[in-house]
């Protein structure tokens, strides 16, 4: 029982047997189906929409166009409400758009009795556009005469520029520039890195349905932040928050892409228009790729200056981020990335950071596992290896001279590092991969092997747990004691495959001594009855919601012991709980079981004693901490065809106390596999002239299959994080972060060629190998 042990997932049986209910499993048989008409231009205005022929099609109930929706801008971000005027979410979305901002924007919706009839009617709609030039990059968009949003004439959504002096941040206002120099300083010229937009590719497409019961609007959806979603939907459809209910069933993955408000306002507005009838919007895979969220593509100029002893003296960073068509997370992901550059390797002298997020005519970028850190870690860790190679230093030794240490004070969020196992992760990985031996052996091998080259590489990272103090971090938990001594646990934190409900059961068991099999964590959320929680993001759940579970379990324990003491007429100070029994602490004498207390108190014929025992608390997290880790990669490169074959990846993580080793290993394996795709294959492609998506399907968009995943090892360096409820800190996102640069650095060791953009696909690698002279260019 309790934390630190590998127990089976509490939702395992339902998911394995197929009895777990997802959104489409809950869809009523009489539900109407809505299909959304997407724009066929990337930038422009809808001049007119002719729906006459579409209305004549069989089964059509209604057609909604961009000319029929409320002129109410709402935010789509899945953030809790910020009372700080410096951190508001962007309200820039209408239910349907007359102003087209990307190829695929939502301009109309058809509701019919089934999907086929809705699609046939959709094809009868005729649209007239006024078309503008697509602005697909920040360079093209910022300060262009064509503004994508009225409230942002420059198309620069937001920026953050600063200089760090003596550990304090001094903010200033810079300007967008293609100049690689940071803050105009020629001594801080950066190396250019580029990373593309990619997609989460969760197994369940985004979907929702809405209907009304009386005055209540009910939305069933696969969303990670149901309480925040309720606020956004209420604003969009102009209903009081209390009249909107969000139900979240089981989720088939999300990785951040289900954090934002997507099509729930459309479905709810259509239901309202049709008198409360049930309307469903079930996205296709092609729509999920384009009409939800992507990872931000970024252009990064990174500058690092070192002294002759290998100590970093000065650093500079310029980061231009492609935010896409709508603001969603505003500048928060870009800011998260730029600040991380100055945290993992703090320097003693000047540190300058400049960052910009632009509106462009691409699909909206939002949260995706790692929240901007995979992008910056690729640039940062690639540059560290480049410097080490140039200077003739061992990359590991160079890093260890400069990494963040215990006691480091984060200059941005003003907290001190109280646990840090990074150096141990590095040392352990060095030993496990046999670094020193293989670096020498592969150097010798590569001297004589022309086509096949071998390399070992590594990369490290740091990642914050939660988002305090930028945003509110709180969570609530409710527990109800049943007559048999079992417990119902309700939390607003969402289980989306990561195993949080299982860990919450372990946390409650740790305090109450009730086995996890008798702790029933309710895995679905209903905003009418589920306690508030900000939701699933930022690897915060075991850290923040875990604090609420622990606090509530302690209150429940106190209530149980109090009732037992009153019944037995014994001082409460003499009693404790052990193995589901209330005992006298000194003598270990059993007074009664927890179930006895629950039954007696529920049904005792004494109004002064009768009580159905419940406990509910709210936990507000006023702390933050860093998770750390390293990745080591052993691979070979077939140079003529640009093919990478990864032999082994060793992932090492300091996530504080590991609450469930089996689940933790699953998180690592999933994160590493996802990162392999980011490193060597994945990239959303768009026509450079029209902005039309070119590979928004699982045939042309290449994610790794089981045949592509290399041998993996996961290892944990357990530290104790005093701000975590059980000494724990982030694990969900961190394993993905260092894989791309570790693979890149292994390719550097193997070939001597520095790669500056992702993905490291055969086409891109061959191009770089030709430039480096490793492959003869046979073209005339």
From TrEMBL:
InterPro entries hit by this protein: Ald_Oxase/Xan_DH_a/b, Ald_Oxase/Xan_DH_a/b_sf, Ald_Oxase/xanthine_DH-like, AldOxase/xan_DH_MoCoBD1, AldOxase/xan_DH_MoCoBD2, AldOxase/xan_DH_Mopterin-bd_sf, XdhA_XDHase
Pfam families: Ald_Xan_dh_C, MoCoBD_1, MoCoBD_2
Transmembrane recorded as keyword: no
Recorded GO MF terms: iron ion binding; xanthine dehydrogenase activity
Keyword Oxidoreductase: yes
Highest taxon above the source species: Bacteria
Keywords from the UniProt entry: Molybdenum, Oxidoreductase
Protein name as catalogued: Xanthine dehydrogenase molybdenum-binding subunit
Organism: Anaerocolumna aminovalerica
């Amino acid at each position: 029982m309790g934390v630190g042990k590998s127990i089976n997932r509490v939702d395992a049986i339902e998911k394995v047997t197929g009895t777990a209910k997802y959104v489409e499993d809950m869809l009523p048989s009489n539900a109407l189906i809505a299909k959304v008409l997407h724009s066929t231009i990337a930038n422009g205005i809808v001049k007119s929409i002719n729906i006459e022929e579409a209305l004549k099609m069989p089964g059509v109930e209604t057609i909604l166009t961009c000319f029929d929706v409320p002129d109410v801008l709402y935010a789509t971000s899945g953030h809790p409400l910020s009372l700080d005027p410096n951190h508001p979410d962007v309200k820039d979305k209408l239910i349907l758009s007359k102003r087209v901002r990307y190829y695929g924007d939502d301009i109309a919706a058809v509701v019919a009795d089934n999907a086929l009839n809705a699609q046939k009617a959709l094809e009868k709609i005729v649209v007239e556009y006024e078309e503008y030039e697509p602005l697909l990059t920040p360079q093209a968009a910022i300060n262009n005469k064509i503004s994508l949003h009225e409230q942002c004439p420059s198309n620069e959504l937001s920026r953050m520029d600063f200089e760090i002096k003596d550990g304090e941040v001094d903010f200033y206002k810079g300007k967008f520039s293609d100049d690689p120099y940071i803050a105009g300083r020629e001594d801080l010229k950066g190396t250019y890195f580029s990373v593309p937009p990619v997609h989460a590719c969760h197994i369940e497409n985004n979907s929702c349905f809405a209907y009304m019961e009386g005055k209540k609007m009910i939305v069933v959806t696969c969303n990670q932040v149901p309480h925040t979603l309720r606020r956004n939907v209420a604003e969009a459809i102009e209903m009081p928050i209390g009249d909107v209910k969000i139900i979240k069933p089981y989720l088939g993955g999300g990785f951040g892409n289900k954090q934002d408000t997507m099509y729930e306002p459309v479905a709810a507005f259509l239901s309202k228009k049709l008198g409360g009838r049930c309307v469903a919007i079930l996205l296709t895979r092609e729509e999920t790729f384009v009409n939800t969220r992507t990872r931000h593509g970024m252009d990064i100029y990174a500058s690092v200056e070192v002294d002759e002893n290998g100590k970093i003296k000065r650093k500079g960073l310029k980061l231009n981020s492609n935010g896409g068509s709508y603001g969603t997370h505003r500048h928060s992901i870009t800011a998260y990335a730029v600040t991380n550059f100055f945290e993992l390797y703090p320097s003693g002298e000047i540190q300058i950071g400049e960052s910009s997020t632009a509106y462009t005519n691409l699909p909206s970028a939002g949260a995706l596992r790692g929240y901007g850190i995979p992008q910056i870690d690729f640039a940062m860790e690639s540059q560290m290896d480049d410097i080490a190679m140039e200077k003739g230093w061992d990359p590991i030794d160079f890093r260890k001279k400069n990494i963040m240490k215990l006691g480091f004070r984060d200059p941005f969020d003003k907290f001190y590092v109280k646990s840090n196992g990074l150096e141990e992760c590095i040392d352990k990985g060095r030993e496990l991969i046999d670094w020193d031996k293989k670096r020498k052996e592969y150097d010798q091998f590569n001297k004589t092997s022309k086509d096949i080259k071998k390399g070992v590489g590594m990369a490290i990272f740091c990642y914050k747990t939660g988002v305090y103090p930028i945003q509110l971090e709180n969570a609530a938990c409710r527990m109800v004691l049943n007559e048999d001594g079992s417990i119902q646990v309700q939390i607003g934190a969402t289980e989306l495959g990561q195993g949080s409900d299982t860990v919450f059961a372990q946390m409650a068991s740790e305090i109450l001594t009730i086995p996890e099999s008798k702790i029933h964590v309710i895995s679905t959320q209903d905003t009418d009855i589920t306690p508030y929680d900000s939701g699933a993001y930022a690897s915060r759940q075991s850290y923040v919601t875990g604090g609420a579970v622990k606090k509530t379990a302690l209150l429940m324990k106190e209530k149980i012991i109090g009732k037992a003491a009153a019944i037995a007429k014994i001082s409460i100070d003499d009693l404790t709980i052990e193995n589901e029994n209330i005992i006298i602490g000194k003598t270990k004498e059993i007074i009664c079981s927890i179930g006895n207390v629950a039954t007696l108190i529920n049904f005792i014929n004494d109004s002064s004693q009768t009580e159905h025992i419940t406990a509910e608390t709210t936990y507000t997290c006023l702390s933050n901490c860093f998770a750390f880790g390293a990745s080591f990669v052993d691979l070979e490169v077939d140079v003529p065809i640009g093919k990478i074959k990864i032999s082994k990846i060793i992932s090492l993580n300091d996530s504080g106390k590991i609450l469930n080793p089996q689940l933790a290993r699953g998180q690592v394996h999933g994160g590493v596999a996802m990162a392999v795709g980011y490193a060597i294959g994945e990239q959303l492609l768009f026509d450079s002239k029209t902005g039309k998506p070119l590979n928004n399907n699982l045939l042309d968009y290449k994610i790794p299959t089981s045949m592509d995943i290399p041998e993996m090892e996961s290892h944990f360096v357990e530290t104790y994080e005093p701000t975590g409820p059980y000494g724990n800190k982030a694990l969900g996102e961190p394993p993905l972060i260092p894989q791309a640069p570790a693979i890149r650095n292994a390719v550097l060791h193997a070939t001597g060629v520095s790669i500056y953009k992702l993905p490291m696909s055969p086409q891109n690698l061959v191009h770089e190998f030709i430039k480096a002279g490793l492959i003869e260019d046979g073209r005339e």
